[in-house]
Amino acid sequence: MIKVLKKTAQAGFEEKNDLIVEVSPLQAESGIIIELQSPVKNQYGSHIETLIKDTVAAEGFSDVQVNVSDKGAWDYTIKARIIAALERGMA
Amino acid sequence: MKNAVGREIPAHISGISNTRLYEGTSAYTPAHTGAGKKLRAGKPHTDKILKSIDEAIEKTGLKNGQTISFHHHLRNGDYVMKMVMECIAAKGIKDITIASSSLSPCHDFLIDYIRDGTVTALESSGLRGQLGKYLTKNPGALKKPTIIRSHGGRARAIEAGELHIDTAFMAAPTCDRQGNATGRIGKSAFGSMGYAMIDAAYADKVVLITDNLVNDPVYPYSIPQTQVDYIVPVEAIGDPEGIASGAIRITKSPTQLLIAEYAAEVMDETGVLKDGFSMQMGSGGASLAAAKFIREKMEDQNITGSFGIGGITGIFADMLKDGLFKACYDAQTFDTTAVKSLSENPNHIEISASFYANPWNAGPIVNDLDVVILSATEVDLDFNVNVITDSNGICMGASGGHSDTAAGAALTIIVVPLIRGRLPMIRNHVQNVVTPGDDVDVIITERGLAINPKRTDLIEKLKDSKLPIMKIEDLQQLAYAFVGKPEEIKLSDDDRDIVAVVEYRDGSILDVIRKPLV
Amino acid sequence: MMNDPKTRLRRTMMFVPGNSPKMINSADIYGADSLMFDVEDAIAVTEKDTARYLVANALKTLKFHSETVVRINHPTQTPFGIDDLKVILPAKPDMIRLPKVEDVSEVELVTGEIERVEKENGWPEGTINIIGAIESVKGLYNVREICRHPRLIAIALGAEDFIANLKTQRTKTGIELYYARSQILMAARDAEIQCMDTVFSDVRDMEGFEREVTNSRDMGFDGKSVIHPKQITEVHRIYTPDDKQLTHALKVLAAFDDSLKNHKGVLAVDGKMIDGPIVVRAQRIVDQAKAAGIDVEKKREEI
């Protein structure tokens, strides 16, 4: 079942190895749009974008704007912050 | 052409006359005679004191296209280079090569003088700050790539005549009216004048710039009056805050302490820690922190070392004072405690950069090192070390004494975090080679240690060790398991985009730094 | 045998704030026997959700050498505990730390959640166990019953809240905790489970720390909760048997093996009678020595 985000929400902190994720609802058929800022964009940019997309989709959302301000977070942290932000956006 | 560390070096680099490729750590033996000293005849009863830097530039006859030099003992507190460059620019002199023993973020102002053509070439131990970023992104801003040399390599280049200095502008914390100078006293005291000694001995003209001109004879002096042409008194040569930190303390970072503890343990288990041993520690967090654990082991086992070399900090000066070592050789003094030690402790010996590390004299002191502990920006599977560029290819560091001490020491230990932020620090190939893997014996990270497979003796000695020793490939995979494999950054292969040439200490070309395409 | 959850070494259990990726990333490198990821007191009420997802994802993704423990919020006294379990349990920590436990019914509640998740995932019963923390007088009065619950494999003292409850403060002598420590230990030994001492929060005072750890070791505690990596080495040092103890323990075990093989009835080492508990204690000393990196096999040959 496709979930529709209710509101804009944030999770995470501006700390080393962490990131701030902001998710916002988009109109139907918009898809998952990602804006990524990261100090490791040259090395991991496309990997992180795929991870974001896959995580959002796995949580059941299809039309979400995801803004990420990364500080060198590892995959598990990126995933955890996205899940938390999406859950907050449904509250 | 590929050199002996597998780096592709163009046969000819525009503006660089040197074409000798790196062939190995001790492949080259010089057979020629070095630079001679320009003779000049000082007249009796003439005053060397000038009113201004402007007057000094007039008197030295500085012209377009010449090379001037500075030392970096004032570190990030240096005022002298800026004062001199302002005068040179105001006089409209162009096309100057600056050969500084190193550059700090306080030299970012050079960008303006590069833009207006006052400065057209740099030779330095390193490039940092905004200047490093600017030159990495705009290699065409200078007429030729920056030449990066180690401290020993620079002393060698000067003595061999490869780096000819027309005028040396040397900051002096204290000097007398004849030009006998010392860094031990004065409001801007920075300790050893080790790098300045070479410039003063070989430059055609030597100008001392001081904020403590004294009438009484200065003794002991680091630069003798026989080498000094002019003296310019100024209000201040530097910002004390930037020159020497207060006592440098051992890091509180648990990760760095863990790495440091492993380093001390390796020294212990390989038998390095014994009476009469000699060592050098880098000034970085984990390498300096090793002192804490080395000290504990020396005290526990009742060991007295022979000497230390530096880059001396108060941490080592205290070990000297407490009798753990017999002497220390100091080419650069890092903190106020160590400056005080140099003045007061007769066993704290000031040395020149050539005495320290020049591979082309009969015996620099690094050749007698039993062990050196050095940090790294990154390392690779061949044990090569990079300390000059970051993971995005931007110049942000300095060669320093890294390759010099690694070449001299019987045991070279590199301490580096396995992962910085998200980036694994064991690469397939380092961004740039500063120290060749042939001179690196053990790499220590917070999650494991790797021994250079060529050091079968060390592998044997550590075979029953409880230390987490593994193959370097496995250590790299361990990092990848946490953060994944990074993509390589793309570099320009246009030879006009060569930012810098990294010389090995013998003057051969070890690597070129290319502009990243991002 | 060393990794049997009931008997494995737990000399140190290091607190790791559950919402700090930086600290979680490096938690495993300092050699703590157990890591306790905290989503309780270290986390503000507004961030309970993000912390539990972070810890759960860390447990699913990172490989830890140490045993993993998650301190959840109290399942009945706070609105967060049950949600913590829902997110954390599927990530398969080795243990749940139940804070401020006052009644065995709370242990039963958590056990129910664990059993459900174990069944759903087809994990054997006992995959996830519980360590309780006594942090109030009421909890202390019920500690014997709490300790006897079969899912509870260790009990800890949480001193900060306990001291507040007592209306006093921590002292250097530890007099204020003497009764609680003794009671909890007795209950743990009665129930044959492990017992962990509380944290020592002044990380700069290593002398005070050494004194306290030595005392709790001598009282009989199996280990210490720690809050800083530098405390780990110190606890492990204090919990490392000395040469004399190890030699004796190895002799006891050798004599015991010999008696089993050769069907001897009575055995003695150095003129002293050996019985069951002495053998168990000897094994424990050998385990501690091994964990501390002592080459026990070499020592065994030397004897």
Automatic annotation (TrEMBL), chain A:
Family annotation (InterPro entries): CitD, Mal_deCO2ase/Cit_lyase_ACP
Pfam family, one: ACP
UniProt keyword annotation of DNA damage present: no
Primary localisation category: cytoplasm
Lineage: Bacteria, Bacillati, Bacillota, Negativicutes, Selenomonadales
Domain of life assignment: Bacteria
This protein's UniProt keywords: Cytoplasm, Lyase, Phosphoprotein
Entry's localization field: Cytoplasm
Name this polypeptide is given: Citrate lyase subunit gamma (Acyl carrier protein)
Gene Ontology MF terms: lyase activity
From TrEMBL, chain C:
GO MF term set: citryl-CoA lyase activity
Sequence ranges assigned to domain HpcH/HpaI aldolase/citrate lyase in this UniProt record: 11-229
Keywords: Lyase, Magnesium, Metal-binding
Annotated EC: 4.1.3.34
Origin: domain of life: Bacteria
Cofactor(s) this protein cannot do without: Mg(2+)
Record bears the keyword Hydrolase: no
SUPFAM superfamilies: Phosphoenolpyruvate/pyruvate domain
InterPro entries: Aldolase/citrate-lyase_domain, Citrate_lyase_beta/mcl1/mcl2, Pyrv/PenolPyrv_kinase-like_dom, Pyrv_kinase-like_dom_sf
Pfam family, one: HpcH_HpaI
Keyword Transcription listed: no
Protein name per its UniProtKB record: Citrate lyase subunit beta/citryl-CoA lyase
Provenance organism: Pectinatus haikarae
